[in-house]
Here is the input.
Amino acid sequence: MKEFLIKFQRYPLTWIVLVACLIALTISALSPYFLTVNNFTNLMKQVSIVAILAAGQSIVIISGGIDLSVGSVLALTAVTIGWLVQNGVSPEIATACGVAVGTFAGFINGIVIAKGKIPPFIATLGMLGIARGVALVITGGVSYQVLTPLFLFIGNGKLLGFPIPIYFVIVAYAATHFMLSRSRFGRHVYAIGGDEHVSRLEGINVDGRKIAIYALSGFFSAVAAVVMVGRLASTPPNVAFGIELQAIAAVIIGGISFAGGRGIVLTSFVGALIMAMITNGLNILGVSSFWQQVLIGIVIIAAVWVDNIKSARRR
Amino acid sequence: MENPTPSVRLRGVGKSFGGVSVLRSVDLDIMPGEIHGLVGENGAGKSTLGKIIGGYYSISDGTLEAFGRPADPWTPKDALDKGIAIMHQELQLVPELTVAENVFLGIEDQKLGVLSGTEKDRLTPIVEATGFEVDPSAKIVDLSIADRQKIEVMRALARNARVIVMDEPTSSLSADETQRLHETMKKLRASGGTVVYVSHFLDNILEVCDAVTILRDGDLVRTAPCAGENKDSLVSAMLGGGRSKIAFPDKSRLKERQSALEVRSLSSTNGTREASFHVNRGEIVGLIGLVGGGRTEILRAVIGADKSTGGEVLVQGKPYGDRSIAESNRRGIVMVPEDRRKQGLIMTLAVRSNMTLPHLSSFATPFGRILAATEKSRSREAIEHFQVKPPDVDGDILNYSGGNQQKVLLAKWLMRDPEIVFLDEPSRGVDVGARQRIHEAIAELAGRGTAVLLVSSELEEVLGLSHRAYLVANGKVFDELVPEGKTEGEVLRALFQLQQRFPEASAH
Ligand SMILES: Nc1ncnc2c1ncn2[C@@H]1O[C@H](COP(=O)(O)OP(=O)(O)OP(=O)(O)O)[C@@H](O)[C@H]1O
Ligand SMILES: [Mg+2]
Here is the structure.
């Protein structure tokens, strides 16, 4: 029993879930509307896109890297879909092409980082500009309407009473969690994040793994784009501007080490949820969105601070 | 005569990590002006005790006094301010800074925040005191481990430390360098300084220490004057039983001479120069030379960690060009590196994940799903075989003692019988008992047909284990010799003669 408690205490999800519950309780004590089914559904829809991006970002951060281009890649994917649909391509094929384009952008990130030995921060900063720029070039800056049944269903449909985006989130996290904790690829992600040099000496194909990691991040951005297109029923090229910082913040608040090599992906979902709850809760309470930004900033710093204190305690 | 105040006094000190007690009611006085040895098996708590004295760990029970005053609060900075410095077992230098910058890190000369750039001048007296020849403007990354260890010593001296805790400072120094370090310790003592000397080399402890403290599994066995101790008395106190005396396992007879590895005039970018040698299946071959003589570099060139510029390598008689670590690994050629922290282990991973990392394919389905149960049971077998303590496959490698990390490192590469294995300092930092276990494991491995290439700074180890050996100096392989019946002295003499015969061998 005692052993179980110690394990439970050490388990990374424990604390962050407690924090999330605490925030939920605080807000619902202030406003009864917060814990209604309606608001909950709303919250889940709001969180879904950042949550999906955070799943991909988690893989990247655990591997010791960072991907700043996710928002732009999302936009590029969305615009590709919109443009194809506009030109009479079926929405299914358009979606497949869009996802391929997003994944390809991530793949390019991977090539530049692994083969060009460009630091991830710089490589993806470049891609942040490139992907967004291409999205603007394709559309000439205009937004396409995509009022096809497929996207209306993704955006507004429900299954078993839950909005469709939730299922995207569940699948994304289940797959990522399995991959990181149970697969050889996942083990290599942790190894590379823990010590890239040693990983090479172990005979791990570090470059190949990095390419896959960034391609995967691109893929997750593309999946988030599909949800986004569903919700907006249109594809504005400036969509999701700055969302990469939210995705990174979700990962950090959740408790994945920014230094790489440690952490579990499920915490990133909770991180995204905490941010969404703060925004949503303060909206309900009528606090200005300017203050929301301040609060989220504080939460990010506090999360890492508490984490440091916790690990120092063990000395 | 009145007793002087101890520099460091521990009373009833206990330490536990997350409920696991690793030190219990330790009473210890470290007197000014003495060299105080600290010995014990791997995981006995030596490093933990050192870190408590240096302020890195807080104590769970008991009291700690420094120079007669309660050490509370006690952080590394407090300890340094009071004159207590610690040299860690795992070196902690900033790789991208120079030697001089590292030595004076945090105590730079400055005016209004502007560096005066006097480091090199300030370094001179320290270099003179220690006799350590190092280029003050060399970057740490470019130095060998032995050199880095010297920098750590100088760093402590630069802080005018009155008490220096040295945690296995000689584990990568040559005999000559060790001797110099001992001289430095004696000089420190003569000027009233105190040294706490943690080491597995009992001869060294007996040679320079005034007093010695023996730890066993977190308990203090005794503190006694060194004069009354000898190797056997220390070993039996450490082990707590009648066990003692190390003996090398019998060398297996080689029946067929089947070439496993043949290297022909191999040159490389890392300074290997036309090295030629061969290893047969089931044979243990030693490379004998001085630290910095290019032995590790030869291994790295053969395995493909560094680029070759000429020569060829034959594996089982067939040429193996275009070498890379991944390809060598696939062919069953593996290398156990000398620096477990920087080259061998991933400190953020659990023990099990570290062990199976290079063999992950054989613990996974074709689709890459890891078979956790098999992985666990095989890792458990391997760590039990090497007597890793604690034997927990899911433990954080970071929290294991240095010697136990070393055992995990070996267990990792030897858990699947490789075809050819390069062992670079395989028993660095492990205790007497574990060393014997490692020697047996190496002999068993060879007995099963693996070709072993062994590099060790301990001549005794190479001579005791190898069937054949080569003398290596300055990146070149010279004479071959059969260790059978040779004494360390004879081999050393051969090495020095070599340097006379071939002046190039000593050009360094
Ligand atoms: N930070 C830590 N967290 C948990 N356990 C620890 C930590 N540091 C050390 N230990 C445990 O404390 C015990 C003593 O370790 P310590 O490093 O003091 O051994 P040691 O005597 O220096 O051994 P070695 O000769 O192998 O270096 C070991 O069982 C080790 O696993
Ligand atoms: Mg130790």
Summary: Chain A has one domain: 44-313. The two ends of chain A are 24 Å apart (CA to CA).
